[in-house]
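ingest -> validate -> predict -> emit
validate: passed (alphabet ok, no gaps, 730 aa)
predict: started
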Amino acid sequence: MELKLLTTADVTPPLSVIAVSKLAGASLIVESTLTSASPPVLVLPNGLKLRGTNVILRYLGRTTTTIPSLYQGDAFEIGQIDEWLDYAPIFSSGSEYEGACKYVDGYLLQRTFLVGHSLSIADMAVWSYLAGAGKRWESLMKSKKYQNLVRWYNMISSEHAAVLDEITATYTKKKDLGKSISTKTKESEQHNNKQIVNGNVNESGKAASRPEVDLPYAEMGKVCLRFAPEPSGYLHIGHSKAALMNQYFAQRYNGKVIVRFDDTNPSKESSEFVDNLLIDIKTLGINYEKVTYTSDYFPQLMEMAEKLMREGKAYIDDTPREQMQKERMDGIDSKCRNNNLDENIKLWKEMIAGSERGLQCCLRGKLDMQDPNKSLRDPVYYRCNPMPHHRIGSKYKIYPTYDFACPFVDSIEGITHALRSSEYHDRNAQYYRIQEDMGLRKVHIYEFSRLNMVYTLLSKRKLLWFVQNGKVDGWDDARFPTVQGIVRRGLQIEALIQFILEQGASKNLNLMEWDKLWNINKKIIDPVCPRHTAVVEEGRVLLTLLDGPEHPFVRIIPKHKKYEGAGEKATTFTKKIWIEQTDAKSISANEEITLMDWGNAIIKDIKKGLDGTVTELTGVLHLQGSVKTTKLKLTWLPEINELVPLTLVEFGYLITKKKVEEDEDFVDVVNAETKKEIAAVGDSNMRNLKLGDILQLERKGYFRCDAPFVRPSKPIVLYAIPDGRQTATK
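emit:
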């Protein structure tokens, strides 16, 4: 059987697929023809295609005749194999690598294979990740730290040496297992980088390799998912994970994504939020089939509510809210639970009319008031709300709850898998029960962990407090964790996508550091962003070079010494130049320094004021001097009228605590000082900066242009971009 494996050119082919295909006796041709971020594709002899590492492994395991045990066994053993396939990618995570080794080492204490008593694709998946870990795994083997794991690894390697030795020789270096032997030239690496011409990203960057995750019960070409934000705020980094996970699975299974606005609470929602959510979804690069609204289904939802009342599966309740909450906690039936249909319909009509009597009522599902899972204790399905809706005005006075509307619309719209963060785990049973009572097709729920960031609030209610109380300038404020906020801060979307997809669909709750995200961002912008020079305005010092040029002259030099695409800039050389006060204070008399992009100079005289600040410097050029011998390499600007005024803006976290607990009032930990503005002057080339341009100020860091040059009296505003080392900033 001849098979073809399609992979991306910049990622090593999945060793597990190659190994299992060899063990299965299949003839496999590997072609690097896919675009970045695409999962591997197996092309069968009849032209049919399978996508994703684990999907391919299962196919190979089922069809092999050489080693029947690869994907066989009873239902429990097959389930175990699937669990190990999902677990194996943890070995590709640097921070969790040793923990995974420790876990599997303990698991293998009294076992020969991971599942049952023979080799399976579970063994080959884990073996391949270890083989691909390079020197890290090699050093652990030598350390004798995980003897059971090493025993198991060596057993597989020796028993199938003919196949596995060939694979490691072909796809890995002998001295560094798992590292591709192909090397990229600097030219090709530069070509693959995300390019920023004049500060703007205009080409897709190289996607980082990441572990693949399977979607249970998924059928190729039939997967339909939905991203369903509530239009009560802007999209933030937590929502981004949900959106990108939906797109990931849709692409993996050749399916589709529907964007649905869950607009069931007119008190919080607005068209402004809808419009900006669509902007944010576009920014993330989400490809969706169509946009729908829960409000499109209001008539059908009302019909379903009436149907459930007639079937005795729902009732109208006028119990006061606080008492109702207490009764639910205590498992006490409402006094209205056994009202007859006529009474329920009568009160339902009062709710529809929005009458005074109707406003006292709500519709509840009749589920199970004694269930240990309290979400099943007769949840609320409908409430009155006289507020006009942002789309349909005052047509309705009643609105369905999320708990009621979501399972209905998911099923009606043909959603196959509903992705939800694991914080809703206890409500999954409610979701399935409501669909069952409605008599609708079951939708599979797939959980992933919510993305939480240090020193960050992601509750839209809490973020709204900052907006309404003037603590930030709006939802796109650079201190906000919204997509528009972090992009305004200088984050490249490719960095956000890479950061989120590297985590995969893990169900582990983690508090993530911003530094990791900003470090990824730095690796994208540093190779290509143009370099400029700025000098802080306060206390800047004039250095007179006694033998400097009598008449200013200009040289054209590259904006980035290693990347021609950044363009060129004009640098003026003058007899008098500006340097910063902090630099001036660090210079000693007769010290030789290096003036960046010019050469060496010797400082002959230093004048200071009574307070110790440097007021004037005098020196001579020493261009024949070696830059290797100087301690100080200083940035400078010429004394010319063409310098441009700058405002450099640095930001801090909005709160002073890494994690705010549920019972804490976040207002108590609001940071009083979160924004710092520094006046500076910049080189004349910065007049050409455009809004959104990314640049590096030499010796200061990375910045994004938030307000370009308009006139000399109006400073250019540059937002500081964290580089992954600054723990004090977001």
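The chain has a mean pLDDT of 88.
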